[in-house]
Amino acid sequence: MSDNYLMVHYGELGTKGENKKAFINQLYRNLTHRLKGFSSLSFQKTRDRIYVRLNDEIPGDVIPVIQEVSGIQKISLVEKAGKSIEEIREKALSLIKNEEGKTFKAEIHRADKTFPLSSYDAACSIGDYILDHTDKVVDVHTPDIVVSVDIREEGSFIYAHSYPGAGGYPLGMNGKALMLLSGGIDSPVASYLLLRRGVRIECIHFAAPPYTSDAVLDKLKDIIARLGDFQADIKLHVVPFTKLQEAIYQHVEEPYCITIMRRMMVRIAEKVAKNCNCLAIATGESIGQVASQTLVSMRTINDVTNFPIIRPCATLDKIDIIAISKKIGTYETSIRPYEDCCTIFAPKKPKTKPKISECEYFESSFDWKPLLEESIEQINDVVFHNGVEISSIKEEGEKQ
Q1: CATH homologous superfamily of domain 176-394?
Q2: Exposed e or buried b per residue across 82-113, where buried means at least 16 C-beta atoms within 10 angstroms of its C-beta
Q3: Is the pTM of this model over 0.70?
């Protein structure tokens, strides 16, 4: 049985003052839930760290799972020692003997101020001991190996390897948002960015059968399966949008169709968001990427609501969004051929600077409200747990 631990360093939640305990407790719940498949792990929570004792588990299996839990700055593979300098030196020597490289330095973090040596004196003592017992040499500027020692009330922790965490805040600490999920590259990335900021999500998708196929929904299910690694339970609201979309293209001049369609989507999303206790609507929009994502278009679309709309990808270049989608494993699914309700009816020359007054004029030319209500009444909810579809609930006018 291994005596190695993984030391979980908190991210931004370490600055939370009086609220810090609530953030740590939420992170602890999320972490232990995410690692429940590893039966031999044991956990210890403190004000500044969470320790995961590996016991019979392999670090390379556990660390990638922890890296997907938001609210963590980094994960260090550590060996625990007591707080005598003699024991710390022995552990540090044992560790460095297994490391490749000729040069090293010792870094000490003395959180426990009752420790009798200063950080500098402790580093010198450990460094001298390693010099006396190995052929390695000190290099304080560009060492091959950094031996880190974290001296805390609960013991000393020695390590040479750390791995980046997801950062952000523990999932569930910042409320819930309703994400407009299209099946493309951007909206899954926006979903992930929300999740790592501690915001839970429900998803809404606008379907336009028979113009769009079930392949789009298959893509969405695969995307949600991947997002299920970051949030266990996700509900997808599938909105039948065909009648309303057809009416828009019958009564609205083509350059304005996308803008009017987006305004209708926001109206529907607001009603759904309020019914499922979401505090905001979220989209995958990036400023200037397409005609409906210019600042003028966004302002005109936003005009139909005072409900918060969050755009996590707003300032990201497409290349940055693609890089994140590859990192989180949604890219290959997102680029599978598909046609959603936006692409299938895309106008040849969409308006990039649509006027609110013009939109209001076009909307006054047809009776869209009954069609909007019909779309809401016929929403189909699909519930996922750990990425697996567990139920599909056809709603008849009553939201859960």
Answers
A1: HUPs (3.40.50.620)
A2: ebebeebbebbbebbeeeeeeebbbebebeee
A3: yes
